[in-house]
């Protein structure tokens, strides 16, 4: 007990989750419904970032194309609604199926490459998806499509911001919980191992590609769920969700929070989207401030906010940074086949 | 569809390819050789175009404008290197993507503050203003100037990377800077110089593209992605690869744009062809990249090193 | 002696360079077979082909009576054919214990398990702890592998191979970078393990080779020059000329 | 004898973990010294500090009487130091020949015959055979030869060899010992770290035993021979 | 009164948003900081041209700020994404930049107005203009997205001659030499294009450099306007654009607007500034009549105000579908003194209504 509450890196995020749980009630009480929608969006992005964190943070697969899955998730709802399908279960099944399948195919191809090529090929797939939806004239093309039939799960209809909020919050909590378990579960260890040294994982008797592919598929599917929620929140699906900038934002969120950490995506989403909102109220030229802030985050390294909090943790070493030298590891010939991070 | 037009379009593809290479050249140095994923290359290119436009406005001389663009972006590159980039070489690509993504946002907005949101004006120099007639098609003379500059840059960077000790040291430094330093080489300085040269080439590309493209905030992104595609298809770290890949992408993109809708019309309904043709054409470059990488993950002409 | 690992004129070339030249080996159950040879003779390349990391141009590899030539590394690892790396290859972000447990787990079961922590796996953990004990790393269990000194990394590398519970161990210079004391410990360890596992040892440390090997093959320019007992090797004039040198006849230091 | 290199009460840490507590030793011009010790005692860490690859937290390093402990690596190296690092660290993406020439230097201050490509190739014919291969395509031992050759190509005045014979065939190893002796004749100062104490005793003038980040014993080869218990206690032989 | 003003204020299209903000604020300033006699608070938000952000801002305006009206609403994709919440709440919204066909037709809403245009209008005018000129063969080009397709459809609605080819290019395409070669070989009487923003600058510069401006007359919509002319200058000379407004329009209201705008912001306004300026003036009239807080009454008042306002574009009124009834002009880009300006060369469509209004159930 005491251990949890003496560690800021654990209790701060938990406290934030608790506060988020209170948002709908507070909003109800104060009549500020807007904040429900606002935080719902943050939570949905946090889910997407959790999803990316599986591939990127745990598996070291620098996907610059996760907007593809966010967009696919959204369009599943859009297309289903267009064709008069309102069942949330059908939406969910379609979403998982489509995102899983697309992730399987694109992942199988992308994972043939490593490093920069992996970044670029995932970007390419997302761009293809973007252009595909832009040219779907019947479904609104670049104007996007309004969603008349929100996902309906039995008695629960995701048509109000509050219902989306509740659903998203539950998904987020489950995701975080699962990610915490996954991190040190055998599967998590395998993909985290593959990030450091894929060759060694193979030599240990584990067919590393299968694990990476599955991680990529799971990541894509969870991201799709975020897309589904996003579509319900906005009652709208738009190709702009698939643009490369969204992929970039998701990466930024994951890294700001703390790459590969359990609570990182949540903290990252709050800080990133919150900051954007705050800066926008100061000046139209908010990007002049926002851009350099991102640069600073990159310079500070990947332990992100979680790493910052960990500094206040008692009896715990700061997250091991690639210290002064990783000399022997950088030794010649250790063809480091880490996806995305050669 | 006759032979002349196919030939004319081939020529268009080639010259688009050279334009792409011009954009890719600086990036190959930084991205390919130093292994630094520089999304801000597009921003440097944009800044080059703006520098050129401003200098042109003051002096009226295109030559001076190009010089100003190169000088300005060289200095800018040095400053960026000093402030941020130098600290990132030894980190992985993710940090590069992140930091330079931030820089892209910054520069796009900075440009709007300084030069406003409207596109600024940059003109083709008087002496290159004419058009040349080839096989019944007129070509702007300026395009030939771009080809010449592109080829010069290609040769120059190839020599720098493959034939000089500086090139070797930079390649070595990209992998193990501590060791290079321990052997008595000021790798930091060297990297800074190379980054600045890359920035200068970006600026040159911006100045050269300025007269034919809209000089405005965000002009870097659309070309940046195509440029990255070029480099990856060519094989990271290979100047020759980037050159061939630029030509291939230029031709595939051009031919696809022009002939794909046309061919689809022959085989399918017109309405479908009109919808699918351009969509397919815009995906073509990405499709090409996906196919190439799936087939040869290391790119078409990987640097043999 | 029952043959466990056999190669049939295994050949690998890089362009014009023949790195392994029709190598035929036969290693019996429980044997400790050493391969020595000049630098660049093709020892690591041979091991890579045995472990499945490299595909030979021609020839085949038989393990436990089956042709494994077409199997991948991880499939061979699952059958108990494991290797350690010449260039240290550990998971720097994981703790020492996690590294070993990982190795122990990988060779025994699949890791498509998404909930319970890896370290909670009793069986794998036990193997890992035993291997760490054997290599003398017990006092460093929770240290991140990236913080280990070079010698300790080598120890961990070896521990990982042991934890995997191999039938057959391919050891590529396990003593490289170890001080005399640690080498001696590893020699003692291998002495103990000798009959349990079949071991193929590549090593330039002649103390170790002569102390441990049942038989030694000498690889020169990709060809097996000679196979024999340590005594035969020690006194083989050609081996002395190309590899051992004049003084190198036994214990040094 | 005026010391070419002198290290005084050196301390250094990796992050929070202190690795060096009290390291002092000197290397005279033309002298060969060794750093002895078991694994993880701090020998390589000392070397990293010499080359400015790890910041020195206190103490000093001087070359030719001049403090260098806060200079960047390349400035230190330019004073005539060359490193054969632990774990080889050849440049994997450069060919053998490029590895050799990329950082080559002709230092007028160095004594003896200058090292150039030809001389290195005579010394390591194997490298000549493999001259067009990438560093990553070399065998372990070939990489080691390359690392030594690369250091020699900077024509140093002080050569630091950290486990330079690791992974080399015995014949080659003997060659190296012979060559180091020759270099010593030429007047090249050396710091050698190796596990082969016997060979070191033949080569070196003085030995420094490092235990847990401190120099705990120092003396000449004869002293060492005369005190086998030292060897036993600190090196475990 | 509290007005929420939403426009793209960052990114490449920021100029469009900036002009809207400036146009709107200029009118408010001229009205002494008041709308309908009440002190006006204008809340400005950047939608970044992202539909999702647009939706969020709309919610903020309605749920948090409780605005009386929302103005701007960016491009049609952002407008469409904002629509659900606007319709649900009944808040009055005036689009100053878009009039997508769904909103003009069956999807029209009593509380959603546009002071801009139905997307096809200007293109229809150019079609009519080409038809009136007696052109036989025309070549059409547009980027491959919704608006591009709408524009070409609009052109074809009034042009009855031969369409040699209809070419859809990639969005944000930098290089047009291949398309220009095709164009050249097709030998049309004229080419009609829709290339907003940077695309238009790219296209026209390259067309001019290839020496085609002299050979093939260029008709365009939303391509040569206040937002792009500074980057185009001489390159655009000779081209004809269809629009419902230009700085060159010779009415007293417009003269004052252009002069004041230029004085204040040191640049020439674009049609986006004009639509926002009109929107402010319409709101001023409407807010003077409707009780605050009653959005139904305000919507009715806005509709009525459409016919009363002295629009800078000449005749103006709201149609049954709440989109404008207005003139569409043809302007030729000419050199005048040192600068490049528009010159009125015709009014192909006077007091024009869009075709979709028949499908709209509103009166
Ligand atoms: N990818 C490659 N391309 C070309 N040549 C290679 C490649 N990999 C290895 N070689 C060459 O093959 C030869 C054998 O290398 P290998 O690593 O098997 O030697 P080794 O016997 O293990 O030597 P050492 O004892 O030094 O480790 C070497 O000469 C090496 O340069
Ligand atoms: N990069 C590093 N980060 C953290 N700690 C390190 C690092 N490198 C070495 N250490 C620690 O510093 C201590 C000294 O290591 P050093 O490499 O100097 O030992 P050494 O005497 O050279 O022995 P070896 O034979 O292992 O190379 C060891 O305890 C090791 O754990
Ligand atoms: Mg080897
Ligand atoms: Mg060491």
Automatic annotation (TrEMBL), chain A:
The UniProt record lists the keyword Cell membrane: yes
Coiled coil region boundaries: none
UniProt KW keywords: Cell membrane, Membrane, Transmembrane, Transmembrane helix
InterPro entries membership: ABC_transp_permease (IPR001851), LivM-like (IPR043428)
UniProt-listed CDD domains: TM_PBP1_LivM_like
Name of one Pfam family that matches: BPD_transp_2
Subcellular location: Cell membrane
Main location: membrane
Transmembrane segments: 39-58, 65-83, 89-109, 116-136, 162-180, 213-231, 251-275, 287-309
Keyword flag rRNA processing: no
Membrane topology: Multi-pass membrane protein
Protein name, per record: Branched-chain amino acid ABC transporter permease
Species whose genome carries this gene: Polaromonas jejuensis
Taxonomic lineage of the native organism: Bacteria, Pseudomonadati, Pseudomonadota, Betaproteobacteria, Burkholderiales
TrEMBL record, chain B:
Keywords: Amino-acid transport, Cell membrane, Membrane, Transmembrane, Transmembrane helix, Transport
Stored InterPro entries: ABC_transp_permease, BCAA_transport_permease
Pfam families listed in its UniProt record: BPD_transp_2 (PF02653)
TM ranges: 16-37, 66-85, 97-115, 141-161, 193-213, 225-252, 272-295
Keyword match Transmembrane: yes
Family listed: Belongs to the binding-protein-dependent transport system permease family. LivHM subfamily.
Domain of life: Bacteria
The protein, known as: Branched-chain amino acid ABC transporter permease
Topology of this chain in the membrane: Multi-pass membrane protein
Main location: membrane
Organism per entry: Polaromonas jejuensis
Subcellular location: Cell membrane
Organism classification: Bacteria, Pseudomonadati, Pseudomonadota, Betaproteobacteria, Burkholderiales
From TrEMBL, chain C:
Domain ABC transporter: start-end pairs: 5-246
Superkingdom of the organism of origin: Bacteria
PROSITE patterns, A to Z: ABC_TRANSPORTER_2
Pfam families in the cross-refs: ABC_tran, BCA_ABC_TP_C
Family matches, as InterPro entries: AAA+_ATPase, ABC_AA/LPS_Transport, ABC_transporter-like_ATP-bd, BCA_ABC_TP_C, P-loop_NTPase
CDD domains for this protein: ABC_Mj1267_LivG_branched (cd03219)
Organism: Polaromonas jejuensis
Keyword vocabulary terms for this entry: ATP-binding, Cell membrane, Membrane, Nucleotide-binding, Transport
One Gene Ontology molecular-function label: ATP binding
PANTHER family: ABC TRANSPORTER ATP-BINDING PROTEIN (PTHR45772:SF2), CONSERVED COMPONENT OF ABC TRANSPORTER FOR NATURAL AMINO ACIDS-RELATED (PTHR45772)
Name of the protein described by the UniProt record: ABC transporter ATP-binding protein
From TrEMBL, chain D:
SMART domains per the UniProt record, alphabetical: AAA
Coiled coil: none
Domain of life: Bacteria
Entry-linked CDD domains: ABC_TM1139_LivF_branched (cd03224)
Residues in ABC transporter domain copies: 5-237
UniProt similarity note: Belongs to the ABC transporter superfamily.
Keywords annotated in UniProt: Amino-acid transport, ATP-binding, Cell membrane, Membrane, Nucleotide-binding, Transport
Native organism: Polaromonas jejuensis
Name of this chain's protein: ABC transporter ATP-binding protein
Pfam families: ABC_tran (PF00005)
Molecular function per GO: ATP binding
